[in-house]
Design a protein that fits this description.
The complex is a heterodimer.
Chain A: H1 5-25, H2 29-54, H3 58-88
Chain B: H1 8-26, H2 36-58, E1 63-71, E2 78-84, H3 86-111, H4 118-137, H5 141-159, H6 167-197, H7 208-217, E3 223-224, E4 227-228, H8 229-247, H9 256-259, H10 265-273, H11 276-286, H12 288-291, H13 295-316, H14 322-342, H15 346-373, H16 386-389, H17 391-405, H18 411-429, H19 434-464, H20 471-474, H21 481-496, H22 503-509, H23 515-521, H24 527-532, H25 536-547, H26 557-583, H27 597-603, H28 608-653, H29 661-681
Antiparallel strand pairs in B: 1-2, 3-4
Classes of the chains: A mainly alpha, B mainly alpha.
């Protein structure tokens, strides 16, 4: 028996909101990255769910692209976190405020 | 054909200018006589070439060519060219002759007197001659304007030659500013002529006088900006006349000229006789075909001329310095030329321009000789008795004075008589409002003859006659050949140049000896007048048909001519005799006190300077200050206000740039949410 569409969407929305919450409240740059991953994956869930719903493979294909993108993003993100640590001896994003007015 | 090389006439002095300038900078010792020799050679070249060109023109040659296109366009192009016709050929000859003699005279006045800065002096003099000659041969109004301005610049350079003293720089500035004021109108006029006709050419079928004439003949009548064509042409003519009034020192812009006496005397001779001041009158003669289309402009020219002639002559009566008397005589004599041009006496004006160039150059050089002898004391009350000590100067100066006073048979008599005669017969004959204006101008011109005779011979008696009144006058410094030579040449000229157009004699004897008239008339059919449309025939037709100037002889033709000559001659002789009775004795005294309150007014030049200074300080300065306030307060205020508002808002807005990534993320999220809310509220369609 098929799971109704609404459940997928609710799950996706919940994961996305957790991601947004993480971005807005966490100070650790690594947790930032993880929250971003959560948001990306929420989008992936949506894509796959609609793909299944419409019987069309395009959405699944897109989710593969998103995963590749996420991998690249993590690589860059980790690099930034490393540089952040080297310069500020911390991974707290609220301390790296030299780009202010 | 030699006329095709006419462009070289101004190039000679330009070359000597460059030589004087470069040599003064790189090799000051290599320059012979401080630059005088290159100048003399160059002016000699110009003189020879312009004489040659004049001979070719006498043989019927003319030349009107565009040599260089500065800005070319479909509708409008600015060009430089050369126009050689009898008028410009003759003027070039006069200018180069006077300039040549002035260069030679400068050897005595500047070099022998041990002046410093001679290369600067000769460079200025060369540039002056160059600009005037280029102005004379200019074939269009824009080129004429540019060299007109250059002439003004050169006068500034030369009047202020002794820039370390107090007077000359201020006089130079005044000359520059006053003539610039007139030139401002001239510039507007040039632009207006170009806009109206699309060309500034002086001669030929495509020239602006010819086009204007065609417009007037058109049916239905053309209008410009809602004005009739003739009204518009009057405005154009009067705008250009602004420059003429400034340069030719006509009332009310004459005030710069007496002050310009601060310059070295040879410069004064050049300015007054052949270059700067002559430029204005020459310009009117050059575009005479245009002025003839506008009776209004002609009436104003005549009135300004007649008034200036009398006005300046009356001021010359009380002056104590030799050069001041001559300065006012110049203003007065140029008034006569304007009077002649205004009353349709084209030949008379050109004639007087010629004779005046000779005798005024002579008088100034003679005054220069006296000034050398008097160790640069110019006060006539310190002179006296110079007749025996400097005979050549005396006799040549006397020749010039007789010419200036208008005593037969010296040059000035013939030309001044013709000016007044033309004014008289046209005053009687012309239709409408022109007649009273011409007669009024004639009356003022006639009265000025008396004053001219008086102040001229007051000057002669005070300077040369009687007993010496100071030690320097008792033992004057001798002058050399380089002073006497030019004086002798011009002295003979002042006595004889009137012979080129002895109209009364021609009328009496029936002999065709009015050579100048023929020179400007050209052949009846074809020839140069048909090519350039600057011939006298054409002008006479315009005078009758468009301007409405007619001749009438109240006593019959020959008697009127003789009576007019006799009246002006007797007035001139009367002036001379009055001067003789008042100042002719061995020990003359001042009689100016007898004028009473008039003396003060005359001594202050009718308070012309005062009122002009008041205009500048009392009107222009407050006006400028108010405009400045408006500019600083309102115009700049708006601009500054806008910038300070954006500065302020910018300084507030940049505070959202906190540098904390979380804040940015929050802002983005909130904005997105807000956008979504808007979408929801407006149903997903935002118009």
């Amino acid at each position: 028996m098929a799971v109704p569409m609404e459940y997928y969407l609710l799950l996706s929305a919940a994961v996305f909101c957790i991601g947004v919450f993480g971005v807005l409240t966490r100070r650790n740059a690594l947790l930032f990255l993880m929250s971003v991953e959560l948001m990306l994956n929420a989008a992936n869930i949506n894509l796959v769910a609609f793909s299944w719903h419409h019987g069309n493979l395009t959405g699944q294909l897109f989710s593969l692209f998103t995963m590749a993108l996420a991998a690249a993003e993590v690589a860059v993100g980790i690099g930034i976190v490393l540089v952040l640590y080297r310069n500020f001896e911390d991974v707290d994003v609220t301390k790296a405020t030299t780009m202010e007015w | 054909m030699v006329v095709e090389y006419a462009y070289a006439i101004p190039l000679f002095p330009l070359a000597s200018f460059v030589i004087a300038l470069l040599a003064a900078h790189f090799a000051p010792d290599a320059l012979p006589k401080g630059g005088a020799l290159p100048g003399i050679v160059a002016m000699g070249g110009s003189l020879a070439l312009s004489a040659w060109v004049a001979l070719a023109v006498a043989g019927g040659a003319t030349y009107d060519t565009t040599l260089y296109t500065w800005v070319g366009g479909a509708d409008l192009s600015f060009t430089f060219g050369v126009l050689v016709d009898p008028l410009s050929a003759m003027m070039a000859l006069i200018v180069s002759l006077v300039a040549f003699l002035v260069f030679i005279f400068s050897l005595g006045y500047m070099n022998d007197e041990g002046e410093t800065g001679l290369p600067r002096y000769y460079a200025g003099l060369s540039l002056f001659s160059f600009s005037m000659l280029a102005f004379v041969v200019a074939d269009n109004l824009l080129m004429a304007f540019m060299f007109f301005e250059l002439v003004g610049l050169c006068s500034w350079l030369l009047i202020g030659f002794h820039f370390r003293e107090d007077g000359p720089p201020s006089a130079a500035k005044k000359a520059f500013l006053v003539t610039r004021f007139g030139d401002y109108f001239f510039l507007v006029g040039v632009v207006a002529v170009f806009v109206t006709f699309g060309t500034g050419q002086f001669a030929g079928a495509e020239s602006f006088p010819a086009l204007a004439e065609a417009v007037l003949a058109e049916e239905p009548a053309t209008t410009y900006f809602g004005m009739g064509a003739q009204t518009w042409f009057s405005i154009l003519g009067l705008l250009v006349l602004g420059g003429v009034v400034g340069k030719s020192a006509q009332f009310p812009l004459h005030t710069w000229l007496p002050d310009a006496m601060e310059g070295p005397t040879p410069v004064s001779a050049l300015i007054h006789a052949a270059t700067m001041v002559a430029a204005g009158v020459y310009l009117v003669a050059r575009m005479y075909g245009f002025y003839l289309l506008s009776p209004t402009a002609l009436a104003i020219i005549a009135l300004v001329g007649g008034f200036t002639a009398l006005f300046a002559a009356s001021m010359g009566v009380v002056k104590q310095e030799l050069k001041q008397v001559l300065a006012y005589s110049t203003i007065s004599q140029y008034g006569y030329m304007m009077l002649a041009l205004g009353t349709g006496g084209y030949v008379a004006a050109v004639f007087h321009l010629t004779t005046h160039a000779i005798f005024k150059a002579l008088l100034f050089l003679g005054a220069g000789s006296v000034i050398i002898a008097m160790h640069h004391n110019e006060n006539m009350w310190d002179m006296g008795g110079l007749k025996e000590k400097m005979p050549i100067t005396y006799w040549t100066f006397l020749s010039g004075s007789l010419a200036l006073a208008g005593i037969v048979p010296f040059a000035g008599f013939w030309s001044k008589d013709e000016v007044l005669y033309e004014a008289l017969i046209h005053g009687f004959g012309s239709a409408g409002g022109l007649a009273p204006v011409y007669l009024l101008a004639y009356a003022m011109g006639l009265l000025a003859v008396f004053f001219t005779g008086f102040y001229t011979f007051r000057m002669v008696y005070l300077t040369f006659h009687g007993d010496a009144r100071s030690d320097t006058a008792r033992d004057p410094e001798p002058v050399r050949w380089n002073v006497k030579g030019p004086l002798a040449v011009l002295g003979i000229g002042a006595a004889t140049v009137g012979l080129i157009n002895m109209k009364p004699v021609a009328e009496l004897t029936g002999a065709h000896i009015d050579f100048l008239h023929k020179w400007l008339l050209g052949p009846e059919e074809g020839g140069w007048p048909a090519l350039t449309s600057t011939g006298l025939h054409h002008y006479e037709v315009l005078m009758k048909d468009v301007a409405g100037i007619q001749s009438a002889y109240p006593l019959g033709e020959t008697p009127t001519l003789l009576v007019s000559a006799l009246v002006s001659l007797s007035l001139a002789v009367g002036g001379v005799l009055v001067a003789r009775s008042l100042y002719g004795g061995p020990d003359p005294v001042e009689h100016t006190d007898r004028l009473g309150g008039m003396k003060t007014v005359l001594m202050h030049n009718y308070y012309q300077d005062e009122y002009q200074v008041w205009l500048a300080q009392g009107v222009t300065v407050p006006l400028a200050r108010a405009a400045d306030k408006f500019d600083q307060g309102v115009v700049d205020g708006v601009v500054n206000g806008i910038s300070s508002v954006s500065l302020f808002t910018g300084s507030r807005f940049r505070r959202i740039q906190s540098g904390i990534v979380t804040n940015y993320a929050a802002l983005m999220t909130l904005s997105l949410v807000l956008l979504l809310v808007v979408f929801v509220v407006f149903g997903g369609v935002v118009n």
